[in-house]
Amino acid sequence: MLAADMNWMEMAVRAAQDDRCVLPIGSTEQHAYLSLCTDSILAGRVAEEAAALSGVPVFPVLPYGMVPGFAAYPGTVSLRMATYAAVLEDILESLYRGGFRRILVVNGHGGNTPVGTVFAEWLGRRTDARVKLHDWWRAPRTLEKVRETDPEASHASWMENFPWTRLPGRPQPDGVKPRAALERMARVDPLTRREILGDGNFHGRYGRPDAEMLAIWEVAVAETRAAIEQDWD
């Protein structure tokens, strides 16, 4: 159930009955021809669909993350690590005060992954709580399905090209982009990185058939649902 569809009294009852909740986190950054909010759209949607059967509350997506490498692309919004860590700690504290003790963080952006350390530190202070960080796109079964479909999967390529991340009326290239100089990109400034990367796709096809994408999505939702329901101890 979406937090947006609940009032505070209903949330209090829910937390007393079941102390699980889901927090999706994403990013606002360049995704080539796809939406700037691709990571947030995907994290929020997979969390919502995965929690639908259980009624576990899904809080609004945190739409900003850590994206310093794409700072030269207009529309990209990046938080400093200290800022992001503080925001997440405040959110965890708020959820804890609301009665939630088992928090699944569904992450849609690779640059956010270092926050696992923030969660570990917070759990050292809140020893009766549990936090799980679920990178939905590279969870084991989902990643296996992606690689089975096409091993050339990367940022802003076909693997993020779902019907709900495309922008209507914006044509995309029909073909395969050669692999960018990723090793060089890792050690240069954002403007040089943009010059190397061009449109934003790291490598691979820009799109694949919807039937293939929906098959991947089905696995991702099921794996996220399992993360909500299992392995809290």
UniProtKB/TrEMBL annotation:
Keywords: Hydrolase, Metal-binding, Zinc
Keyword Metal-binding (UniProt): yes
Entry cofactors: Zn(2+)
Name of the protein in question: Creatininase family protein
Family membership noted in the UniProt record: Belongs to the creatininase superfamily.
Native organism taxonomy: Bacteria, Pseudomonadati, Pseudomonadota, Alphaproteobacteria, Acetobacterales
InterPro entries attached to this UniProt entry: Creatininase-like_sf, Creatininase/forma_Hydrolase
